[in-house]
Specification:
By secondary structure, the protein is an alpha/beta fold. 37% of the residues lie in helices and 11% in strands. It has helices at residues 25-28, 41-44, 62-69, 73-84, 103-109, 114-128, 137-156, 173-181, 185-188, 197-212, 230-234, 256-266, 301-314, 352-363, 397-409, 419-427, 435-441; strands spanning 93-98, 132-135, 167-168, 220-226, 241-242, 247-248, 252-255, 324-325, 331-338, 341-350, 371-375. The longest helix is centred in the N-terminal third of the chain and has 20 residues, at 137-156. Belongs to the NARF family.
Length: 459
Amino acid sequence: MKCENCTKKECSKKQKNDDTQSTSVDALSSNDGSEEKNEFDTLANAKILLSDCLACDSCMTLEEGARVFQQNQKEFFRILNLNKKCDTSKHKVLAVSLCPQSLPYFAAKFNLSVNEAAKRLCGFLKSLGVHYVFDTTIAADFSILESQREFVQRYQRRNQEEHALPMFASACPGWIRYAERVLTNLVTSHICTAKSPQQIMGSLVKGYFARQQNLSPDKIFHVVVAPCYDKKLEALREDFYTALYNSAEVDCVLTSGEIVQIMEQKNVSMKDVPEVAVDSLFDDLKEGDVVRHDGKRSDGYLEHIFKHAAKELFGVDVKEITYKALKNKDFQEVTLEKDGETVLRFAAAYGFRNIQNMVLKLKKGKFFYHFVEVLACPGGCLNGKGQAQTEDGKPDRALLAQMEEVYTAIPVRLPEANLHVQRMYQDWLEGMDSKKVQDTLHTTYSAVNQSTSSLDIKW
């Protein structure tokens, strides 16, 4: 989450200085020195410099800061080492879920096809002691389907409910954190209630998969590999924690760059790792070739919701979407016209410059969009600050261009075409309109009163 052009009233993030005062996870991690030395010790103590803003200093409390610092390689290897000890009662089933926007980074960086990258990454993780490696695309299927349904419902209620429209996408934790901590309920009431793919994957692993394996959720340690640091904060949300089992849906988030750091510490190249098929949530099945959703750099909420709404609300089959760039390439709109009237107006707003302009128009009552796909990172999820960065913290534009090429070439699969998802709605979630769907796939967002105790860190 990078604050651009912030005003003092909205954000107290300090300007970045070109110095060496970035705080490392290792320096701020609690360690009483009593830990037993093990084969993972060097790796676990690898320093991670967070060169970009994870959250404004007014957005993160001391407690949250301490918990974020625990989400690093040290915690990951603590579990791996625990599993090597003889006390099986303390062993954990270690599951890693891979975000689709991370795979092009590994493919481009190591000059592999995206399918090779997925299999070699799976092989590397399993060589460390990971039991299962999953693809989060199925979780994005659920998130998109629920977002589509919610938009249609909001559109149909738009004349009865003041905050029904516009609807803002809820998949980006940087945007959500900014909305809840800095903006007001005027904005948060417009956010789609569907969980992000990361957190739905948490529900799938700690719920569906745990039941299939006859495991208690607290016996699974769930790691997500993601393109940005904000995903670490998302995993800490109280609504993504089950008190009954003392278990979070996602126990640890590692960025793509942090995985590469582990490889470097182990002196392992992706090309040296054997290919291992990615696991499926279903029995002993394995995943096939990598697929993605519509959208050039993200999970494509705008495109999927637009096409679905056009069909459901106006009976129009939209095959191709035409984007119109507005003030800059990260603020674009898409419209649907019927009988000479514009009936749908969607936008994509990436980066805080566009987000702040969008919010300003909303507050002034000059906002005419029905749906906005909001992402905190300029350029979208592929440009997450946890990957494709140079040593000085700048975007690696050459690598990013390769990543975009790789991502665009991945075949698109519609969420509706996933037969596993349709079966799970019936067998696991008790129908598409059930209370369990609401409890499992949705959450709520609201403005949060800030504590006076905050963590002022130069990320």
